[in-house]
Design a protein that fits this description.
The chain contains 9 helices and 2 strands; from the N terminus they run E-E-H-H-H-H-H-H-H-H-H. It is mainly α. The chain has one domain: Four Helix Bundle (Hemerythrin (Met), subunit A), CATH 1.20.120. Helix 5 runs parallel beside helix 7 and helix 6 runs antiparallel to helix 7.
Amino acid sequence: MAYKGMGQIDKKELWTIPNLITYFRILCIPAYILLMVFAGLNSDPVLLYIAFGVFVVAAGSDLVDGWIARKFNMTSGIGMVLDPLADKLMHVSVLFCLSLCTGLTPLGANTAAASGGWYVHYAFVILLLLKEAIMVCASPLVMKKGAKVQANWMGKVASFTVSVGVILSFFHPYVMYADWGILSWGICLSYGAAVNYLVDIIRQIRKINSGEMERVTSESAKTTDSSNRPFEAVASEDESGSRTEER
């Protein structure tokens, strides 16, 4: 049975393998934060790189759960919401910890000369946190109204770019600010993707309110695009369009 007012979520789908992997990724966040806290308090670079290993494992699990969901048709409404949320929480927590571990802790003092006082400047954290806060605040409305958040190419590129920037940030004293450049570009892309998402969500809600589009359910979330059209119909339209162009 779906949650009241949130038809995309079905309790039966809470414990699918992709969703379990997503929960694991969320649990990696407090583990990472604790490692970073102890790294800073003890001025221990080894713990810093163990925390880096936790981040890499969490990031790798994102690829695994996405592959399993697509390969075995285990996509779900709850996964549609939690998967990107887990990614964003990980990015924000990692950047937040890296911004504190330099300049405000013994570990930061030891590396200040090489890194200019920061692994990650706090401005990156504020910009990313602001964008993610907007998206998180919009999520309940999306679920309640029966809209569907469909990943777009800009969002995927933005997430990948930010991940690369985060990985390089662990080696900030050695990469000559290349990490900050990549983070800047990734955050710019993420704001562009956020605008696209919000425009698409508003479009869907208007269509739902006017009766032009049905509310997305836990079942249709698996088999339809962001306009709640079956993927088969979309593929047929694309194929027909291709044939028309060839003629």
